[in-house]
Amino acid sequence: MTRAWILPILLALCGAALATGLISSGDPGTAVALVLGFVVLAGVNSPLIFPRSISAPEAQRRSAADGRPVVFWRPGCAFCLRLRIRLGRGARQAHWVNIWRDPDGAATVRAANDGNETVPTVVVAGRPHTNPDPAWVREQLRQV
């Protein structure tokens, strides 16, 4: 769990350090803007922006029952973030698996991507799709 928070914490600390330097040089307005920017980046890269992750076996079981896609992702992945943002509120309909928290999920992604942990990998009806177009995923969610 702590692994997922490393990037957001580093971003927040870097923003604080840079802001401290700006404040000491007499530029508090820029420091505040910089801190806000880094806090937004940290929030976007945190596990808070994504729906609650479940285990890969549980996601596959639920997907078989309801037909919804399974999205394998990891924190800090810009392509995962793009998919999550473009899906909007519909993202909560998919089953999300954090491959950093779930070894079975990481193994599933490696099996689908020639040994690479390329995310997002979306599994629909048992077929993996690596970094699919968000519009396509949105359409898959509408069909269920």
**Level-2 CATH architecture of the largest domain:** 3-Layer(aba) Sandwich
End-to-end gap: 31 Å
DSSP strand count: 4
Q: What kind of sheet is the major sheet?
A: 4 strands, mixed
Helix/sheet category: alpha+beta
Strand order of the largest sheet: 2-1-3-4
CATH homologous superfamily caption of the largest domain: Glutaredoxin
Q: What fraction strand?
A: 5-15%
Mean pLDDT: 91
User: What do we call the CATH topology of the largest domain?
Assistant: Glutaredoxin
Count the helices. How many? 6
Question: Could you please describe the fold and organization of this structure?
Answer:
The chain has 144 residues and is of the alpha+beta class. The protein has two domains: 2-48; 50-142, Glutaredoxin. 56% of the residues lie in helices and 11% in strands. The chain has six helices and four strands; from the N terminus they run H-H-H-E-H-E-H-E-E-H. A four-stranded mixed beta sheet has the order 2-1-3-4. Helix 1 (2-24) packs antiparallel against helix 2. The chain is elongated and about 60 Å long. The two termini are 31 Å apart. The mean pLDDT is 91.
